[in-house]
Amino acid sequence: MGEQTEFTMSTQTKLIVGLGNPGSEYDNTRHNAGWWLLDRLSQQFNVTLSPESKFHGLTARARIHGGDVWLLQPMQYMNRSGAAIAALAHFYKIPPENIIVLHDELDLPIGSAKMKLGGSSGGHNGLKDTQAKLGTDKFWRLRIGIDHPRNSAIPLQPVADYVLKPPKQAERSEINQSIDKAQDAINEWLTGNTQKAIQNLHSK
């Protein structure tokens, strides 16, 4: 019975969302780390993200493990991301626990990534708006560490300036390594193996 339940969960429609800001000037900024991971997943799944006005973003659908998986890049600014997520989730009747949001995380060091279900937005405007539009915090998040400016060479740099600037080349390399691990964790999450996804991602 347990095996059947896991199979049923793994074949439900799921939604993977990458948070970022639209516009070429933001492409390589720290705040767009969620987009970097989503782009990697779209390549892996061999799908192309295309504009979909009713979902306020770029979308693609992949067939993974016998179930539909939607990829979404909201094309509104970070603090309005929730409208796109809610629109697609409500249209396809995707429950919050089948949604995972990929985003940058100031409170994690560069080179690390973590995932969890529910919890505080931690001041992240994209998560705040997602919680408001979905009416719950009970969705998954995959947090890509970008470190805090207080730990940088310019510790008094405002957070807004820091996240909207590109990381140094060495930092980007470390972020890419964490994205490699995050990509593997997403693949486990899609099978329903959430505990294995968390353990693998959080292990050094």
UniProtKB/TrEMBL annotation:
Gene Ontology MF term list: peptidyl-tRNA hydrolase activity; tRNA binding
Enzyme class, first EC level, given as a word: hydrolase
CDD domains: PTH
Recorded GO CC terms: cytoplasm
GO BP terms: protein quality control for misfolded or incompletely synthesized proteins; rescue of stalled ribosome
Record: active site: H31
Domain of life, source organism: Bacteria
The reaction(s) this protein catalyses: an N-acyl-L-alpha-aminoacyl-tRNA + H2O = an N-acyl-L-amino acid + a tRNA + H(+)
Residues annotated as site: Stabilizes the basic form of H active site to accept a proton: D104
Residues annotated for tRNA binding in this entry: Y26, Y77, N79, N125
Assigned keywords, A-Z: Cytoplasm, Hydrolase, RNA-binding, tRNA-binding
PROSITE patterns in UniProt: PEPT_TRNA_HYDROL_1 (PS01195), PEPT_TRNA_HYDROL_2 (PS01196)
Predominant place of localization: cytoplasm
Location of this chain's protein in the cell: Cytoplasm
Site (Discriminates between blocked and unblocked aminoacyl-tRNA) residue list: N21
Family matches, as InterPro entries: Pept_tRNA_hydro (IPR001328), Pept_tRNA_hydro_CS (IPR018171), Pept_tRNA_hydro_sf (IPR036416)
SUPFAM superfamilies: Peptidyl-tRNA hydrolase-like
EC number(s) on file: 3.1.1.29
Subunit-level organization: Monomer.
Entry-linked PANTHER family: PEPTIDYL-TRNA HYDROLASE
Family: Belongs to the PTH family.
Reported function: Catalyzes the release of premature peptidyl moieties from peptidyl-tRNA molecules trapped in stalled 50S ribosomal subunits, and thus maintains levels of free tRNAs and 50S ribosomes. Hydrolyzes ribosome-free peptidyl-tRNAs (with 1 or more amino acids incorporated), which drop off the ribosome during protein synthesis, or as a result of ribosome stalling.
Protein name according to UniProt: Peptidyl-tRNA hydrolase
Organism: Ephemeroptericola cinctiostellae
